[in-house]
Amino acid sequence: MTETGGDKPTLADFGDDFASVLCVVAHPDDIEYGTAAAVAKWTAAGKTVTYFLLTKGEAGIDTMHPDEAARVREQEERDGAAIVGVSEVDFGTHRDGNVEYGLALRRDISREIRRRKPDVVVTGHYGDRFVQGMLNQADHRAVGLATVDAVADAGNRWIFPELVDEGFEPWNVKRLCFGGSPTPTHFVDVGEHFDQAVASLEAHEAYNSALPDEFPKPAELIGMILGWGGQAAGVDKALTLDVVERR
């Protein structure tokens, strides 16, 4: 929800009333585009944060064969995660660029939710456009939408009863959050963790080096993303999130 001040809605502080977070995204580096700053704040405060990536980003480097790119990008993701205090990073088996919304995707995410038992799930916006009007990508849209449904699936033993057979009992997530949304409701003040966020993106060295020369460097890009959030929240740097409370 938002708080209101005069005629203009303002973002609510995300708060501190949770213990664990699961970040669900499509590719290595998706979390590093801003969310990692909040992750650094949360882990510094003693929260447990884990990552689940549905692909290994194997189609992300034009000059590198997908098999090699998968190995390189998986390690870069683990390196970037460690910088912000995350040691548990898991990957799915979906193909980069070919992720399809459907029962298989929902089941994989639901399984991970039941396994990790997070209070909070963070994923990406699944609309056609991100904040600032940038076009969204197919895998992002599929994973974001599937996460919406998987959060509900995770709490219902009869949707994927085979998960109970695997030993994963239902789990109810308290808060579902979308990064990159053009309609955020909450913010996380991350000014003290900007350098960690930049370093976590810089850890994706092979991927970053393959980007066009005109693409913003990590410090500039993270500065823009968190700067936009800061302007919306009235602080220096912030991650903005569209939050659905499920209590």
TrEMBL record:
GO terms for biological process: glycoside metabolic process. Pfam families: PIG-L (PF02585). Gene3D superfamilies: LmbE-like. The keyword ATP-binding does not apply. It comes from the Bacteria. GO terms for molecular function: hydrolase activity, acting on carbon-nitrogen (but not peptide) bonds, in linear amides. The keyword Oxidoreductase does not apply. Keywords: Zinc. This is N-acetylglucosaminyl deacetylase, LmbE family. It comes from Pedococcus dokdonensis.
